Amino acid sequence: MLEVRNLNAGYGFLQVLWDVSLKINEGEFIALVGPNGAGKSTTLKTIAGLVTPQSGDIIFKGEAITGTPANLTSRMGISFVSEQLNLFTNMSIYENLLLGAYIIEDKQEQLDTIEFVFNLFPRLKARQNQLAGTLSGGERKMLAIARGIMSKPSLLMVDEPSLGLAPKLTLDVFDALETLRQGGMTILLVEQNVNTTLHITDRGYVLEQGQIILEGPSKELLENDHVKKAFLGI
Question: 0.90 exceeded by the pTM?
Answer without folding.
Answer: yes
